[in-house]
Amino acid sequence: MKQLINQSLKTALLIIKLVIPFYLLADILIYFGILQKISFIFEPITSIMGLSPEVSLSIAAGVLFNLYAAIAFAAPLGLTPYEWTILGLFLGIAHALPVENSIMKKLGMPHWYSTLLRIGVGIVAVIVFRALPIHIEGKTLQKEISLPHYDSFWDMLGNSLYNASVLAVKIIILITIIIIVMHFIKEKLFKNKNLSAPFSIITGIILGITYGAGILIAEKNRLSKKELLFVGTFLMIAHSLIEDPLLFVLFGANFWLLVSIRVILAVIFSYLVVKFYPFKHKTQNF
Fold first, then answer.
1. What residues contact 35, with CB distance under 8 A and at least 6 apart?
2. Please, what's the largest Cα pairwise distance for the chain?
3. Which helix H or strand E contains 180, and what residues bound it?
4. Checking CA distances to 201, which of 159, 173, 212, 214 falls within 20 to 30 Å?
5. Quick one: CA torsion of 227, 198, 89, 166, rounded to 10 degrees?
6. Cβ-count burial 110-135 (b if 16+ within 10 Å, e if not)
7. pLDDT of 71-95, one tens digit each?
8. SS3 207
């Protein structure tokens, strides 16, 4: 129980450190018109995804840091549930690349492969989602985001601090509940299980890429290169399918679409990679 409390407190502190400063920074950039001036640089990427250029900093923060930073940048933009689903799909696959790609490197998967796979499949996921004949609020995307306006800098700062704090509290409550549930799963369901490739997939899907890859790292000498490549590729596309989607559900994103599209693409791409990759070498590195 003490370990559980400590983990919850550490996570809450991390969320506060990330969400509030990045949320304030986003509002400051909007207030002074800086975001509007630099966002055009990323327009080719955001246009492919069907998002306004202003979302680019959220994407950059998510890819380089984590989902909390990405959400903090996106929250002040007033995105629709449809746009949050798009953002959740892409960033659910392609987030925290420097850290998580380093973990996959220990399984013999180079950074270039992990980066191209996750960004490429993230874009494919968005294209697939946009092609689906479904109705979600805000599907008819606006050409321009309705950015917030304030009477003065101090008015903006006060409102931003309040909104950032409310968002941080919501995320902390959600993550605390998830931590408790995950603790139960790890202690009651996964305890004393035999380590294997299928088990690492299940673990990664529920608990995240770090846990799933950790099992593979521990067992990599007992697994073939083909098994490592399949499971590693699968986990990079479909991992943490409870916590990550729920962060975007807070803003109206569709949970089932976020999960189902990633799982289906994970199966397809893992199969294709293993089928067409020439396994000619005995080493576990590419």
1. 26, 29, 54, 57
2. 66
3. helix 153-184
4. 173
5. -130
6. eeebbbebbbebbbbbbeebbeeeee
7. 999 999 989 999 999 999 999 999 9
8. helix
